[in-house]
Amino acid sequence: MTSRFDIIAARVPAGSRVLDLGCGDGALLAHLRDARGCSVQGVEIDPDKLVACARRGVDVLQLDLEQGLSMFADASFDVVLLIDSLPNLRHTEAALREAARVGRSGIASFANFAYWRIRLRVAGGRLPVTDELPYQWYDTPNLRVATHADFAGLAAKCGLRVHEAFGVHAGREVHILPNLRASESMFVFSAG
């Protein structure tokens, strides 16, 4: 079984300059640095996660993504990552446009709320707690939920071109009916 990091890394060219927006503890960036020889930069707001990045030797800036990325020039990175970041942002469109501006390409992923087990749980009257959505409704950091099918509309509205759209479930890529069969959605995109 392939790890989520390996699925992402397979779409990041070796030696790329990578910016991870909402990089968390820096584990993915450390993986890209070590396995793909990438030059990595993280952006994170949580002080505890900044410390975790530093422990991994990952360069990280403490920034609020809601304020934009004006400190980065156009196309200053080969790949920009938005892994589980979009549901936590109020201004999702602006963040996506900024990611496309500073990166030649981007990879976005988020928990797919249309996954059949989540649908079943909601139909039963409860919001789910899953590996991809590990919080109770009252303590989630997510401002919103989305489905795999939702991203195409958002990408079009932001003037982005989606190069690859697929799902991920249990460490496997899901290309057939990902809106129903994948617990996570993943997209490779660039500016239109």
From TrEMBL:
Signal peptide: none annotated. InterPro entries: Methionine_synth_MetW, Methyltransf_Superfamily, SAM-dependent_MTases_sf. It comes from Thiomonas delicata (Thiomonas cuprina). Pfam families: MetW. One of its GO terms (molecular function) is methyltransferase activity. PANTHER family: BLR1400 PROTEIN, METHYLTRANSFERASE. It comes from the Bacteria. This is Putative methionine biosynthesis protein MetW.
